[in-house]
Design goal:
This protein is mainly alpha-helical and about 220 residues long. Helix content is about 85%, strand content about 0%. The relative contact order is 0.17.
């Protein structure tokens, strides 16, 4: 009905990292927790909204059926686009993590060879930067997709609310339920986009600080 799967990534390292990079990583993890919390909260809220709408006679209003069908079609299209983007992002990230794992193995093999290990650490930093770059690209695509569908889905929701408001036979309770659903669904779209934008900004900061650390080694 609603949301995309939450993904998380393991941030791997072969050596001590700066306090700033450590703080960046903690912030990214906090962003994921916020995103997950908002998903759980809105899911529960919207399930309650839909149950109330059904219980108060929405199924008896023939004018609503095509409007809800359009709404569900547009939401399904957005979810499909987001799924493709998540899969593309996941493929790129899995490749990055494979490269990092291979480099970590080389770091272990190079034990006792200071120059080789120094080169390994430099490569690992570069690999982590690439990982963040691919994560950020995926987030950017998903944010753009959400924003491109925002007006369409918002218009669908408004059409449903308007139809109920204009129906002289609709009960005040049904009108209130539909308007509550419209408010909650629009808030959901806005909040999850904001969460992803925050995650994108903090991943960008992490990539910046990893690059700075790479240049200092």
């Amino acid at each position: 009905m609603l949301l995309e799967t939450l993904e998380s990534r393991t941030l791997m390292s072969a050596s001590a990292i700066s306090a700033q990079v450590a703080a960046d990583r903690l912030q990214v993890k906090a962003d994921f927790l916020t995103f997950k919390s908002d998903i759980d909260s809105f899911t529960a809220t919207l399930i309650t909204d839909v149950q109330a709408i059904k219980a108060n006679g929405a199924g008896q209003k023939s004018v609503l059926a095509p409007l809800f069908k359009t709404f569900h079609t547009d939401v399904k299209a957005m979810k499909s686009a987001l799924l493709v983007e998540r899969l593309n992002e996941g493929a790129a990230v899995l490749n990055d993590e494979s490269v990092i794992t291979t480099e970590l193995a080389k770091f272990v093999t190079d034990k006792g060879n200071k120059s080789a290990r120094a080169a390994d650490k430099q490569q690992l930093l570069a690999d982590h930067v690439q990982l963040q770059t691919d994560e950020i690209a995926g987030l950017t695509n998903r944010i753009n997709t959400r924003q491109s569908y925002f007006n369409t889905i918002s218009a669908d929701i408004q059409a449903i609310a308007t139809a109920v408001d204009n129906d002289s036979g609709a009960s005040p309770t049904l009108i209130a339920d539909v308007n509550q659903f419209a408010t909650d669904r629009t808030n959901c779209l806005s909040t999850l986009t904001t969460d992803l934008q925050k995650l994108e900004a903090d991943r960008t900061q992490l990539a910046t600080d990893l690059t700075a650390e790479e240049n200092q080694t």
